Amino acid sequence: MKTIAYIKGQWEWIASQAGIIILINLILLTSTPLEKTLGEIFYLDLLVIFVAAAGYYFHYRRLNIAYTKIRQTMAEDRDIDWFFREPSALAEQGVPGISLMKELMEYKDTGFSRKENDYRQRMNDLKDYLTQTVHDLKVNLSVCEMLVQRLENETDIANKWLFQVEQMKFRINQALSITRANHYSEDIISENVDLEQLVKEAIRDNAEFFINKGISIQNHIKPYHFISDKKWIHYIVSQILNNSSKYTEKNGAITIRGQEDEWGYHLHLKDNGMGIPKEELGRVFDKGFTGSNGRSSTKSTGMGMHYAKKMADTLGIGLRVQSEPGVYTEFVLSFYKLSDYMERQRN
What we know:
This protein is of the alpha+beta class. 63% of the residues lie in helices and 13% in strands.
């Protein structure tokens, strides 16, 4: 706390005490002979000023210590509630304004909690609405699929219609997953995951996209089991495969293989598509980032891979990408063994 700032904050008291001294001096000078009392009055003034200065000094020192603690706490990003809980709290030290500050903070916390609860309720209502809407749309799409299957004599039209239906189904499932991802703390289940079976299911869910572009799948993955959330890993793998189908030319290929080492199991998903420019590689998982490929060849939202990375981080799964423009793009999912996972968490 600066001395000048302290003096400015106490100027009313300083002015009032100076006024009292002047008033006493005037009374003494007018009521007693000047030659007998002038020295005593001067001596009395010095005593009063000394006592007042000592009082201000100790008051300033106590305030300065308190404000230093507050600034140190703010600099260290610590919880300031200890000011009001500890026996040596600033309020008990007589620091002015602390009690009022406590009341203001409690008032602010109450208002913030009220707004937070209102916001959470509105978000939950929106989540429930979106979830119900998505499920209703999935029913409509199922009816469309049944109608497409009856177009026996219009194979070409049926295939095009079915492809559009599959795209809508994928986007609806993606929207549902993103809605859940914003409430992931309530939607994670630990269960036994069969990675080989999960990859096959993800391939099957994207089969229509591969068939439409004549993309071949070379699956060399071997059985591997671990504990995690099956639903979210399926979302991540399916999202990567769907991206590969978008950015791989017709009659291209996607290679899937697994590799186990002392650290864990690594799932490689590699396509021979258009690849990712080097300057964009570090932004693949950024929210809303579509890149030059997404803007030129597809209607990409840039959200799918962002949430895939978000959920991979939440589950403690490594997710990285490497690419060479015009040659390949490869995503690698790393399912770490417990010892390595704990080591990475500590680092």
